[in-house]
Amino acid sequence: MEAERRSIFDKIFFPESVAIVGISRTYTGLGGQFFLRNLQRAGYPGRIFLINPTAGEINGIPAYSSLAALPESVDLAIICVPAQFVPSVLNECRLKGILNVHILTSGFKELGTPEGIRLEKEIEQIALKGRINVIGPNCMGPYAPASRLMLWGQIPASSGSLAFLSQSGTLTQRITEHAHFTGIGLSKAVSFGNAAGLDSTEYLEYLADDPQTKVIGLYLESVRNGRRLLNLARHINPVKPLVIWKGGETPSGAGAVASHTGTLSGQDQIWESGLRQAGVTRVRSLDEVVGTAMAFLYLPPARGRRLFILGGGGGNSVYYADICMGMGLQTPSLTGKTREKLTALVPAVGSFARNPVDAWRSFHDPDFLGKILEPVFEDQGLDMIIVDRLIPRMTYAQPEEKDTTHEAIEYLRKNRSRKPLAVVVDGNGEDPVLATKAARLRQRFCRAGVPAYASLPLASRALAHLAAYYEKK
Amino acid sequence: MEAERRSIFDKIFFPESVAIVGISRTYTGLGGQFFLRNLQRAGYPGRIFLINPTAGEINGIPAYSSLAALPESVDLAIICVPAQFVPSVLNECRLKGILNVHILTSGFKELGTPEGIRLEKEIEQIALKGRINVIGPNCMGPYAPASRLMLWGQIPASSGSLAFLSQSGTLTQRITEHAHFTGIGLSKAVSFGNAAGLDSTEYLEYLADDPQTKVIGLYLESVRNGRRLLNLARHINPVKPLVIWKGGETPSGAGAVASHTGTLSGQDQIWESGLRQAGVTRVRSLDEVVGTAMAFLYLPPARGRRLFILGGGGGNSVYYADICMGMGLQTPSLTGKTREKLTALVPAVGSFARNPVDAWRSFHDPDFLGKILEPVFEDQGLDMIIVDRLIPRMTYAQPEEKDTTHEAIEYLRKNRSRKPLAVVVDGNGEDPVLATKAARLRQRFCRAGVPAYASLPLASRALAHLAAYYEKK
């Protein structure tokens, strides 16, 4: 991206001034008041201008009757007026020299009506004419914790190295929850809806050279220029892993795409082979986007697919092996020194050289945990590790022990460059108290840089993606 | 099962007296003290005898030096002594005329050692000789809330109509959490480990005629007599749906089976075709066992696979359709009266006749919910319904509304015989507070008889299983 274009694009995420066009006098849910409230909550340090033709002032802030009346141009305009007025407001932006415009309003191509399609065409034409970066319409817009441009989501939110591009506002909002509570943080996020102006390829081009961004997650329903997307992906992915979720992959989903963002999703087979050739990671849920991104952000390269599992409870071992195999990982039998050393610690290992290894003691004895993992870290025949960290459940006969989570985390942190290692803390069972406990426990691991997952399928899938990425690289 | 055998078998779950053989003086986790404590907590009304060769008394209860010293025989003995002593204790049981024996102890065939294999053979022979029902070894044993025989798990726990048979103690314990917190309750559960005595087929035969049991869940790693199991399944399944999870389905899992319960799991393809022919429902996780059982227990028969989804947020609609298609359901476009009526309520429906329908208002306006669902209940072209019940998240711009969950539940309850309907309440995002809130909300639905699921994949998979069951029937 050329320097001038880039410096304009920067202001989408780091605007020094924002205009909210079409803000009502009172809060009514999603709309101008919602954005204003969030910018204030976030302590956004830039200038905020409100546009309302008649209000005079809103929440104690003077409101301008139109964009033309503003004392200056702004770095970012947010349009919340009804669909039929959007083209004229966009024209006002053009006349005012505003180069970045987020359109929240829906009611365009996604409706499938002649009027909606016509209005969206108009937007496209005005954007071209004014060289305006249009984000949307029908979307939640840009998000950047570093500049406190938090129009929605968890506030305050921590900055991080994950960028997320999405045609779904809901999913973009949801990812801010994950990013906040796991502590992985976001560099930038954009919900760009119908993509009448900027499309995924433009954002990608920008993120390719964004120093804050190390991993890029995408939720796409359609792409205007598929070939360009795949070229970009091939170029960016080896440096910054791309984690793509493609919605509308089934005929029904494709129908829903048409009515969601007014575009047609390409045939899934074409996508599948294109994405595979580009080497990008393809996922199929938001949890998988986050979980996989976390693995890329926190873990060292994977040298293979041979997984060691430290678990608890014999029944788990059996289906754990099933699940990991299903994800394309292997759980080889233990050999050599690992076998010898683990047999000394867990006698049952001796008979079958089994993997998963069951050793409840490791959950409350960090020294023991270290003794189990040390030979595994050294073993050239094992590439990655999952530690299934059972939490005390009412239902188990666990003796009460002091909480040594802190020490366990310290040990895992210190050793985290040695091999990719993921922790599983499963709070399933519909016990509300346990659900909280498990989420808090995962949070402690994640925030210390040790990725923790809510289930073995999620953890093993993230590791499988990691392995696949480094195989292709 | 003949009457005499049956009346003995009954006492596994409804024992009037229990002996705990091998109970230490103090609590050390899993063992005799654990079982005693749980029986007491549960208010088990029968007689409890403790056997310890030297203690004299334990927790204020007199302890007998051996089974021979007991004043009476007992309905159920629970053996917790080390493996090498198990055969002699089992012999004592035989001499005392005890016909039901649960062996907690591990260290038998599952070790793969000649000694372990020999000891297990001995158990088998003594059991045969004494016509003893041996549960185990290497297992958590029987569980029946109705008789307060709650040796583990959630205490108190509610009785219900789901029976669960499992070779994994961990999973059997875990299911008591689900059963308790969702309120579906258990009729009986057995963790039967190595199955040296009773195998799944015997339990199944018993449950076939158990009036308390309406649905049977199974976690199996191996079956001694596969043909018999499939015959039984074919016979029972049309009356009481069987939901089978077969562990050890991959080569790695099979290896872990050998070291978990000391048996070899059959080749997966053979299982797959056998189970399919028997018409049983095959699942691959504990959540799926519970979720599917809940659908069988609470929902009316499914007449087809055409699903209507009421959701919130456009992005959701797209991937919701993808997920449901992936599970083998259809989300047809709306037609006729349904389309007309829904267009009047949600104008966007008109343009694309879309399904999923997005209508946030339905989450806080039960009358509106009823108006949306009424034509769907009437529509002969729609077979089942998912209501995606978003909960207020910090991240969304939802206006504050009064909680109308109670009214929504009442409406759904009243209409629950009309069409299979599942609710989704997704609390993902790693927010510990939200996780609790979502679990509590699901609980309210479930306990009112409206199945609620933590994710769309879980809900749609349960409905797909329901549809498949009634297609075959």
For the record, what is the CATH homologous superfamily label of the largest domain in chain A?
Answer: Succinyl-CoA synthetase domains
In the CATH scheme, the class of the largest domain in chain A would be Alpha Beta
Count of folded domains of chain A: 3
The CATH level-2 architecture of the largest domain in chain A is identified as 3-Layer(aba) Sandwich
| Intertermini distance of chain A | 25 Å
The pair of chains with the biggest contact is: A-B, 97 and 97 residues
The total count of strands of chain A amounts to: 18
According to CATH, what is the topology of the largest domain in chain A? Rossmann fold
Instruction: Return the average pLDDT of chain A rounded to an integer.
Output: 92
- Principal-axes geometry of chain A comes out as elongated
How many H/I helices of chain A?
A: 17
Unreliable spans of chain A are none
* Biggest sheet, spatial arrangement of strands of chain A: 3-4-2-1-5-6-7
Structural class call of chain A reads alpha/beta
Radius of gyration of chain A, taken over Cα atoms and rounded to an integer in Å = 25 Å
Strand content of chain A: 15-25%
Question: How would a textbook summarize the main sheet of chain A?
Answer: 7 strands, mixed
Q: Helix fraction of chain A?
A: 40-55%
